[in-house]
């Protein structure tokens, strides 16, 4: 009777040994789900350009010139000159500059309205 247990124990040991894998998980697989992370990527020039041009229209700026190659948009609002420049930076970001120096007296909220429209169009 004792001899019948030995083959059963040996078979169980062989089956259990087949369940263990001594090598690591395949590349890219994790045993636990990865934490959710958001990576901020700089927006493309085209998206920023379209948003800046559309925001100017939303703010009531009459665009008189738009040179995509130089990144410069010019226009006016109530007789006040307006310029918008898109400047690529060394760190692969984009600086967008809105300039309407005479608007502080004639249209004091123009800069804020343009910035709100720009951020909305950028999805912020």
Report on this structure.
This protein is of the alpha+beta class. The protein has a domain of 77 residues: TATA-Binding Protein. 37% of the residues lie in helices and 22% in strands. The chain is built from four helices and four strands. Helix 2 crosses helix 4. The radius of gyration is 32 Å and the shape is elongated.
Give a short synopsis of this structure:
This protein has 124 residues and is an alpha+beta fold.
Keyphrases for this structure?
124 residues; TATA-Binding Protein; 4 helices; 4 strands; elongated
Count the E strands: 4
- The helix content is 25-40%
Order of strands in the sheet with most strands: 1-2-3-4
Largest sheet: 4 strands, antiparallel
Number of helical regions: 4
DSSP strand (E) fraction? 15-25%
- Provide the CATH superfamily of the domain at 45-121: Kinase associated domain 1, KA1
Give the name of the CATH architecture of the domain at 45-121: 2-Layer Sandwich
Broad shape: elongated
CATH topology of the domain at 45-121: TATA-Binding Protein
Q: Low-confidence runs (pLDDT<50, min 5 residues)?
A: 25-39
Instruction: Give the H and E element order.
Output: HHEEEEHH
Distance between the termini: 77 Å
Mean pLDDT reading: 77
- Gyration radius, rounded: 32 Å
Assign the structural class, choosing from mainly alpha, mainly beta, alpha/beta, alpha+beta, or little secondary structure. Answer: alpha+beta
């Amino acid at each position: 009777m004792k001899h019948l247990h030995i083959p059963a124990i040996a078979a169980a040991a062989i089956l259990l040994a087949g369940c263990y894998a001594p090598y690591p998980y395949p590349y890219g697989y994790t045993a636990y789900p990865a934490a959710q992370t958001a990576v901020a990527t700089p927006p493309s020039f085209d998206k920023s350009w379209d948003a800046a041009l559309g925001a100017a229209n939303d703010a009531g700026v009459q665009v008189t010139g738009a040179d995509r190659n130089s990144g410069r948009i010019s226009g006016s609002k109530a007789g006040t000159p307006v310029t918008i420049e898109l400047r690529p930076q060394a760190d692969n970001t984009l600086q967008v500059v809105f300039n309407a120096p005479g608007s502080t007296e004639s249209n004091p909220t123009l800069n804020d309205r343009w910035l709100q429209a720009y951020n909305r169009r950028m999805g912020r």
